[in-house]
């Protein structure tokens, strides 16, 4: 099992100029930022890429302004939302006072928050479980591709996925609720 | 506490697909890019010939000095030197 640093610890290291910590922070939140842009706001890929890069550029520049290091996740979510809205306004040429917020964005982001907690738990599993679950569910790879990539018989993939889901569930249910709230 | 049955976990794992690797790599390289920017600006202030080359043809001067031909970097240099 791997022990992940908390969000606050990671932010503190970033603020000290630790490049490895920055890479880890981007890795930790890249899916979240991406999903807000393409799922909650349904931005096309070119706009989503611009928003994605701008979010991390601004986060890097303004990390020192974050009052509570453990609040990096909601801070990034808010930054991403604001940039998505700016992009929609710019592309649709609507008046600034008109609402361009898609319906049910809050619900979508709540679900992404929950998904991020699951991904954080996934990151603590052994490499073999992490890899197989990520490839099958998040990267949508076939049994055949997974078998070839991980040098496993395709016929064993389904049972391995099932066993790894049990481990993931155990990891999540062993967590204190506070860890989900803090994002740590 | 949330009931994480197999279907729920599968759905939540699918909810966060990976962004393109190039996007992630570019974001991870932000500190390096910023340092390159600082180096360029510092050198431009200290080295008159380099500064003149930047003013004459910024992209070419950057390439000649060994920096990536990155439009964002060029824009940032232009902005910093205009102060």
Q: What does it look like?
A:
The complex is a heterodimer of chains A (184) and B (83). By secondary structure, chain A is mostly helical. Chain A has 2 domains: 1-103, Rna Polymerase Sigma Factor, Chain: A (Orthogonal Bundle), CATH 1.10.1740; 125-184, Arc Repressor Mutant, subunit A (Orthogonal Bundle), CATH 1.10.10. Helix content of chain A is 71%, strand content 0%. In chain A, α6 crosses α8. Chain A is globular, with a radius of gyration of 18 Å. The two termini of chain A are 16 Å apart. With 83 residues, chain B is mainly α. In chain B, α3 packs across α4 (48-56), α3 packs across α6 (71-81) and α4 (48-56) crosses α5 (58-64). The longest helix of chain B has 17 residues, at 30-46. The radius of gyration of chain B is 21 Å and the shape is rod-shaped. The chains are: A mainly alpha (184), B mainly alpha (83). The interface between A and B is medium-sized, with 40 and 25 residues.
Outline:
The complex is a heterodimer of chains A (184) and B (83). In chain A, 71% of the residues lie in helices and 0% in strands.
Radius of gyration of chain A: 18 Å
Biggest interface, residues from each chain: A-B, 40 and 25 residues
Helix-strand pattern of chain A = HHHHHHHHH
Strand content of chain A: under 5%
User: What coarse outline of chain B follows from CA principal-axis ratios?
Assistant: rod-shaped
Helix proportion range of chain B: over 70%
Helical element count of chain A? 9
Counting DSSP H or I runs of 4 or more residues, the number of helices of chain B is 6
Overall geometry of chain A comes to globular
User: Major sheet of chain A, described briefly?
Assistant: none
**What percent of residues of chain B are in strands?**
under 5%
Q: Class of the largest domain in chain A, according to the CATH hierarchy?
A: Mainly Alpha
Mean residue pLDDT of chain A:
88
Unreliable runs of chain B? none
Taking the alpha carbons of the first and last residues of chain B, their distance comes to 55 Å
